[in-house]
Structure formats: C-alpha cells, structure tokens
Amino acid sequence: MQFEDQSAPPPPTPRGPSRAAWVAATATALLVVTVVVAVLMTRGDGEAVGSPSPDPSAPQTTASPTTTTIDTQTEVVARLREILRVRDRALLNRNASLLDGIYTVDCNCLKDGRAAIRRLRQGRVVWKGLSSRLTVQQAERVNDRLWIVTGVLSTAAVRIESELGELVRVIPPERNLLRFALAKPLDVDEWLLGHVSLLNDRSYAVTGRKAE
To answer: Which of 53, 58, 89, 107 is most buried as measured by Cβ atoms within 10 A of its Cβ?
Structure first.
C-alpha cells in the first residue's frame, strides 16, 4: 500500500475508479486510522449510583487485583480480534450495518468504514481474500473503561474484482504496527474500538522491522 501525496490523482479508466482512489480507500479501510476519543479517556471510574450496600453477614470474597487485570486483559484482546474479524466480514460482504456494533459512536472508524463500503458499491467492485491477523505485543490498562493494545496487524493479499469477476488490481500482503484504544462506554456492555494509530514507518510494512 502506498502513502504518497494523493492530491493530484490520474483520471479514472473505463474499467473503474483511479488507482489513487483505490489506494485512499484501501488505506482507510485496512488501517482505519482515526482520532482518539478524548471524552472516554477522561471519564472517571466512579461507582454506579444506587448500588446496593453489601450484606455484612455475607461471606466476603475479593478477587486479587492482579488476577482481575489479567482476566480483563484476556477479554479485551479477544474482543479486539473479534472486532477485526467483523470489520473484515463487513468489507468482504459490503455490509456497512455490521460496523454498527464494533465502534464507539464518536469514532471516525465508523464513518470511514461506511464510506469505504459505499465506494465499493458505487464502483461495483468486491474484495476477495481479506483476512487480518493480530499479534499482540502489549496491552495496557488506562482505567476500568479504557485499554490500549499495541500489536502487529498482518493482512493477506486482497484481490479487487469487478462484480463480473474481472481482476482490477491486487493489494499485496502487509504488516503494520498499530495501537488500538478500546473503550467500554457507561451504557454499553461490550468493549468498542474508539481509536487506531499507525506506529510504523514504510520500512516496517515491507520488512516487518522498524528502521534503525
């Protein structure tokens, strides 16, 4: 995938949208680089209003903070992998409704994903073979409702084909170092993706290693 200046794209050919437009759409849909959800990061961890008082006669059982953190980390990482699978399925099926349950309402990921799917439909093309795999390097708890996960997202080669099955172009496999912010808003039971940042430079995408 290329990240050069796309201010002057070449005119589209009769076969479909211009190459620059495909690069822009691919960058948006595959990387989903967005703005951080500041309001979620600044929310406190206060107790819920109206919580019942514990019964003093009942036996007290407290989970170790370390054990609780590990369990939540496992839950967050599993949820992130599920979110990436749903995103892949939405793009492959050109079904924007699948994106509604995986992003925070103020995340640009949702708007960008819908726009990418709309371009696929307007261009009458489909993606074939999109598959993402996440290798987690670090997971960090910010507070009870916000976690930051850093990892390498590997994507298989993607074939862009017309609805008639004609090959338009092939996007080669990629490896990108990304930072994900997952939040759990007060009125939501599931972890949602609210922010994605690209950490690596071009050399990492090609070689799998950051430049010295």
So the answer is: 107
Closest among 196, 147, 201, 198 to 35, alpha carbons compared: 196
How far CA 97 is from CA of 37, 94, 155, 210, in Å, comes to 22, 9, 22, 36
* Per-block mean pLDDT, blocks of 10 residues, the chain (212 long): 37 41 42 34 37 49 65 96 97 95 89 95 95 96 96 96 95 95 92 92 44 36
> pTM for the whole thing?
0.66
Which CATH number is 178's domain given? 3.10.450.50
In-domain check, residue 60: no
Given its phi and psi angles, is residue 83 left (phi above 0), alpha (psi -120 to 50 degrees) or beta? alpha
